[in-house]
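Below is how a single chain appears once it has passed through the pipeline. First comes the sequence as given, then the structure the pipeline wrote out for it. We keep one example in the README because the format questions we get most often are answered faster by looking than by reading.
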Amino acid sequence: MKYESAPRLGCSNKLHKFFRKIWVPDSVCDYIVSGIKGIHGWKDDRIREKMAQELHFTNQPALAELKNNGYLYFDDETINLDAPIKKAKTLFSEKKCGELVESYSGQKPGVLITLMRDSDFIPHRELFDFFISDKITSIACSYFNCVPVLTNIRLWWSPPNDSIKQSQLFHLDGEDKTQLKFFFNIYEVTEETGPFTFLCKKESRKLISKIPKWRAKLDDEKVFKELPTAKLHKLLGPPGKLSVVDTSKCLHYGSRGNRKDRVMIMFQFTRRTAPKIDAPIWSHEISNILKSCNKIQRKVLNFA
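Resulting structure:
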């Protein structure tokens, strides 16, 4: 059976580069690109909204917590993660070698290394089925009030390091004004493994309002000068611990001062009209996944 792809403009980065060349401010670029994507797929967006409205998400307190605070820790024991954890540990052991690290990451080992991405996960149904499971997609749909797109999947390895640069400084992710990143611990994450660390949505908004001309990254001194009582939240916990953060609204950093390896999987959902990211181009093997998908899961994978 042949599956038809949903609208995908696929040129967000090219459009941004073009508008920057003619000195269009970044915020205006985002507005224009989102508008173009909205016009291009307006019928699909209406379908996504209707499908989300038809969902009856039962855990309203969890949804309210996510919307109010910008993050949520999952404590739902009904999600059996034994098989995903076992598979992820096996994959990490296979990928952790210099040759593969270089080919997957394009960077020297040191901060945050991508060992697997997107279509690499398709053959591993224990993991891929989890990423698009009803419990995950239902909370994502309820958060966005539409069926979002699964735009990124990464197996991340953070080796020991003593640097503080790039994503190790406080920042917001800029793919859209809102997004959800799910973080899944493969091995235990402790203070020694450089945990993902963030401020809640309210604290982040308060800080940004005090520094109107802030740039892409903020050092700790500036953050705690403005918010001396700010509470840092850290994604600590055993293998299988699952958390979700709106990284467009919560200032965060990670992989800082590791004394031990940190290994986790991140998978990301955004609106279809996100100005700085497009739906992945899946390999042909995605058809094996689509055969068993419901209509919302197909939309999440950007298929009609």
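The first helix runs from residue 12 to 21.

See the next section for the split statistics.
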